[in-house]
Description:
67 residues; 1 helix; single chain; elongated; alpha+beta; four-stranded antiparallel sheet
Amino acid sequence: MADLIKWKAASGLKFTGKYTPSLKGYLGECLEVDVVVQGKTLEETRNRLKEAVKFHLEVFGPEELAQ
C-alpha cells in the first residue's frame, strides 16, 4: 500500500510524494512533477525525492507546475 506524504520546499511550493514498497526498498513519485526515485529505506527515498524535485525545478523552472 502506498503512503502519501506532503512537504513544503524552500521555495514555498507544496509537493506530495507517493511512496510504495518494492522488492528492493521503496519507490517515490512526486504527484506534481514527473519525478520518480528509488531508495532502500523510506527515509532515503523521501530525501532522494526532495532532491530530485529540487533539481527538476532548477532545470525546468516552476512554470512547469502550471501545465
